[in-house]
Design brief:
Length: 448
């Protein structure tokens, strides 16, 4: 039973059955080679990590993937050098039919539907830690996590911005034997390229201008725990071999130092890019990708798991307004939307809805705010402004005051502020930039 009295049915299916398929090379240097899919996604290329490895030099290292979905077989080309063709049509992404003949380089592949299904386990639960989802896509992930989380295996999380990669990383850490040790977040998008080596590995006093004391890096700070490297696809190319060496040797050397320091930290990395595409483009080292890609988890966007919108919206509303039922028309409106910003955008929309439905909060947000020049006094309205725009301005003014007070109470520490507000750290940074609020350095551990 949900907090507003609505009965929520717990998922019951234990497995997802998808149509099976095979790939056969019918033309090219590897003619006769075949693959029978044993999992929903299979990849083709010349790199050894692929499910079907080809020797054709005109095929890219990571050329294509084919995924069995409830809607059919979905093909994706990883920005390959010579493309993927069906007849005279080049295919970047799209659904393909049984019997389709794909030309990749000088190789032709045939896709055949099989009588046997691909079966993938589904968790009976609709959550893992603080990560929620009743859709088949999320329950497939939840089914695997009880085996993955307790290990020290490196995990690579892929998914669009806002899908909850940081929250999932934190949940994996909390379910591991390292949960009592630090969970250290390093966001590659938030650090200047000239400082990222110091942030990762630390530095010694005097190693560069401003290095007034020895400082441990994120790997050392995560001793015994987990380091979460967010948006690793943004890591500068010249830093990638240094990270690879640290992962291989399990040691680091501080900037300006000579001593190698032993590491004891599990690595979870996340990216909003498909690194196979980046490897083909030459912007991400293949050897680092292979080292990170021990267990790869793809978190689908919210538009591909629309059944989760209701579950998430109810959860967020109950958090923000525990004593009020969620209006049915609001929930219906949410379920009709596409949510390009994914879970982060949905949560922000719920926050805004709660704000605008609370007269006390609305009054707070309608007063003059120092950060909002020209804001109207709380007892005045400019009726020349359309209702929707006026409502958004009120929400923005309240949001600016809230974030400013939040950062002040956290003494400028973004990670601490995100924990206080139970808000995704990346979303909070976006709001800080939006309202030009001054914030200090982040703490060693974040909320993910």
């Amino acid at each position: 039973m949900s907090t507003d009295g609505t009965l929520l049915l717990r998922p019951s299916a234990k497995e997802l059955r998808l149509e099976g398929f095979s790939l056969t090379v019918i033309e090219g240097p590897d003619s006769g080679a075949a693959l029978r899919a044993e999992k929903s996604e299979v990849s083709v290329g010349t790199a050894q990590g692929n499910d079907l490895v080809l020797t054709d030099p005109t095929v890219s290292r990571h050329h294509i993937s084919i995924t069995a979905t409830p809607d059919g077989f979905f093909l994706r080309d990883f920005d390959s050098s010579n493309g993927t063709w069906i007849g005279s049509t080049r295919i970047l992404t799209g659904y393909i039919d049984d019997g389709a003949k794909l030309r990749v380089g000088r190789t032709t592949l045939r896709v055949d539907l099989l009588d046997e299904d691909i079966c993938e386990a589904l968790s009976p639960e609709d959550r893992f830690g603080s990560v929620l989802g009743a859709s088949d896509a999320m329950r497939r992930i939840f089914a695997a996590l009880p085996r993955i989380a307790p290990s020290d295996t490196t995990v690579l999380l892929e998914g669009e911005t806002g899908t909850g990669k940081g929250v999932l990383a934190a949940a994996i850490h909390e379910a591991s034997a390292r949960s009592r040790a630090p969970f250290v977040v390093l966001d590659c998008t938030a650090i200047a390229p000239t400082l990222i080596e110091s942030e990762l590995f630390g530095h010694v006093k005097g190693s560069f201008t401003g290095a007034s004391a020895d400082r441990p890096g994120a790997f050392e700070q995560a001793a015994g725990g987990t380091i979460f490297i967010d948006e690793i696809g943004e890591l500068p190319l010249d830093m990638q071999p240094k990270l690879l060496r640290a992962l291989e040797e399990k040691t680091v050397k501080r900037v300006g130092g000579n001593q190698r320091i032993r590491l004891d930290a599990r690595v979870i990395a996340a990216t909003n890019r498909d690194l196979r595409t980046e490897v083909n483009r030459g912007t991400f080292r293949a050897d680092l990708y292979y080292r990170l890609n021990v267990v790869r988890i793809h978190i689908p966007p919210l538009r591909e798991r629309t059944g989760d919108v209701e579950r998430l919206a109810r959860h967020f509303y109950a958090e923000l307004a525990p004593n009020r039922p969620m209006p049915a028309d609001l929930l219906e409106s949410f379920c009709r939307q596409a949510w390009p910003g994914n879970v982060r955008e949905l949560r922000a929309a719920v926050e805004r809805a709660v704000l605008l439905d609370d007269p006390a909060l609305l009054a707070l947000g309608s007063g003059r705010d120092e950060g909002s020049p020209g804001a109207a006094p709380e007892d005045e309205f400019d009726l020349r402004v359309p209702y929707r725009m006026a409502k958004q301005r009120a929400a923005d003014r309240w949001e600016a005051r809230y974030v400013r007070e939040l950062v002040s109470r956290a003494k400028g520490n973004v990670s601490e502020a995100s924990r206080l507000a139970r808000m995704d750290r990346s979303h909070l940074r976006t709001l800080i930039r939006k309202y030009d609020i001054r914030a200090g350095e982040e703490s060693d551990a974040g909320d993910g």
